[in-house]
Amino acid sequence: MKVALMVTCVNDAMFPDTGKAVVRLLRRLGVEVEFPAAQTCCAQPMVNTGYLDEAVPVVRTYVDAFAGYDAVVTPSGSCAGSARHQHGLVARRSGDPALERAVADAPPTYELTEFLVDVLGVTDVGAYFPHRVTYHPTCHSLRMLGVGDRPRRLLEKVRGIRLAELPGAAECCGFGGTFAVKNAETSVAMGSDKARHVRETGAEVLVAGDNSCLMHIGGLLSRQQAGVRVMHLAEVLAATEDDADQVPTEQPADLAAQQSAGRTDAIQHGLEQGATS
């Protein structure tokens, strides 16, 4: 099976380790995975804010970049939901029959846990992560994709992990993309509730399947000096005994440092290292 990694804009710019973790994980499971350098945005920001016409060239770039693969895998329920549910709408609105056909014929896009559980048929991915963890199910993965308990089933098979139930887990964290910009006070209030629930669990690490939500919650936890690290689920599932002592106990305060260390070339470098190891 030949799979393409759709890394997402947020991970490209700020969290390259997540993309590299997906590559390590899938290759460990015997999947041939590539990173098409022509990929850009999934078009979700434009669609969600009503700019459907402006989304047309972005969707066209998406289907061109991922043509020819058996599947597209992304560490984001939000972006997977956009590809599955919004691209068809954009294509139909465009009035371009060729784009409609391209979207209809495009390889399926899977959120990471869907691909692991439904396509590969695995829940034990050989991970080791000896920390107390709580899991936040992000809105798009929970409601748009219906991933259900797949992330939880994967986490339960991780050796050494101690899972703590998150109160009010299904409640939105308040990020919502441009919602956080246009409705900042409401967004912060919702995020503060989520951060409080995270602290109540006594977890060392908050895990989720979307770094955008983790960035929002993690920023609040950092300002509260909660001592809770946020990590993408892919990084936990990719971890092995060799990584056991490499998890910081606090969320980095300077996200700008992560941003400067990001970009696509970091992901590509990780792919090249994996190919030669």
Automatic annotation (TrEMBL):
Taking every annotated instance into account, which residue ranges of this chain make up the domain Cysteine-rich?
3-80, 133-217
Region listing for Disordered, in residue ranges: 243-277
Top-level taxon: Bacteria
Gene symbol?
A: lutA
What stretches pass through the bilayer? none
Q: What is this protein called?
A: Lactate utilization protein A
The record's annotation in InterPro entries points to: Cys_rich_dom (IPR004017)
Output the Pfam families linked to this UniProt entry: CCG
